[in-house]
Amino acid sequence: MEEQTIQEKIKTAFIDAVSTSSEFTGEEIKEIDEIISSTQKADKMAENLLKTIGGAADEDT
Fold first, then answer.
1. Which domain of life is it from (predicted)?
2. In a domain? residue 39
3. What domain count does the chain have?
4. What are the phi and psi torsion angles at 55 (to 5°)?
5. Which own/partner pairs from 34-38 qualify as long-range (CB within 8 Å, at least 24 positions apart)?
6. How many CB atoms lie within 10 A of CB 18?
7. Is residue 33 situated within a structural domain?
8. Which one of 1, 3, 12, 17 has the minimum C-beta count within 10 Å?
């Protein structure tokens, strides 16, 4: 099994915390999860693009 990145661990912990909170509805939790997931996808796309053009991808890029 592949080890989670720090971003994935944070997302999982955050969604778990939000899911158990009475402050958010089921629909809001779903929206939050989608927003976080789309942000991660954009980060991955940018990282892959940078690697493709020969750059070194890191958190400061």
1. Bacteria
2. yes
3. 1
4. -90, 170
5. 36/11, 37/11
6. 15
7. yes
8. 1
pTM, two decimal places: 0.57
Instruction: Specify the length of the chain in residues.
Output: 61
Tell me how far CA of residue 44 lies from CA of 5, 29, 36, 52, 56, in angstroms: 12, 23, 12, 12, 13
Angle, alpha carbons 15-19-22 (nearest 5°) = 140
Provide the residue type at 40 as one letter: Q
Q: Which two tokens stand for residue 13?
A: 């912990």
Residue 54 and residue 33: Cα distance in Å, rounded?
Answer: 32
Q: Is residue 45 part of a domain?
A: yes
Residue 40 lies in a domain: yes
> Could you report the per-residue pLDDT of 7-39, keeping only the tens digit for each?
788 888 988 999 999 998 999 988 888 888 887
